[in-house]
Amino acid sequence: MDVMSRFIGAANKFNAKTIVRVTGDNPLTDPVVLNQMIDFYLSKKAEYTFTSGIPVGTRSEIIDVSALNRIYGQLSDTGYSEYMTLMLQRPDKLNIAEFYTNNPCIDRPELSLTVDTLEDINLIRQIYLTFDGVGVDLADIITWLDKNPDKKIIVNKDTTLLEKVNYSFVGD
Fold first, then answer.
1. Which residue has the higher pLDDT, 112 or 169?
2. CA 154 distance to own-chain centroid
3. Are 40 and 51 in contact (CB under 8 A)?
4. Pairwise CA distance, residues 156 & 17, whole Å
5. pTM higher than 0.85 for the full model?
6. How many structural domains comprise the chain?
7. 113 in a structural domain
8. 89 with 140, same domain?
9. CATH number of the domain that 84 lies in?
């Protein structure tokens, strides 16, 4: 699936200069962190900005469209562009800026709040039910998880997917 091509096509159709990427399997993306990231991205004049300190499933990315166009033609296999994050975290190809929240309440990279499995969707449903489905503060969710350790999902460190994905560039 050539996801990067679809991003480029949509950006070009709307004359977008920047893409803020929030994936569908991350329903708890934190809007406060996202706004801070946007300010950081602009101040750093980055081509790609990401954060890795907060839980998986709450993260987003900011991508410069011209940089995306530039590197797309350099990919060894565009069929793997579904894994754009792997392709974009290349400081030898892009001006990258990693954003840190400096908020110890939400700096919990070991937690997973993404939706990849039935267990994940059940946790997200329970979170929405617990917080009445309204805009939930990430710190409140993490506090709730800490009080309910049986609900926590810890990030799976399995790297077999990385071994199967070709995220190389021509000439690597």
1. 112
2. 17
3. no
4. 34
5. yes
6. 2
7. no
8. no
9. 3.90.550.10
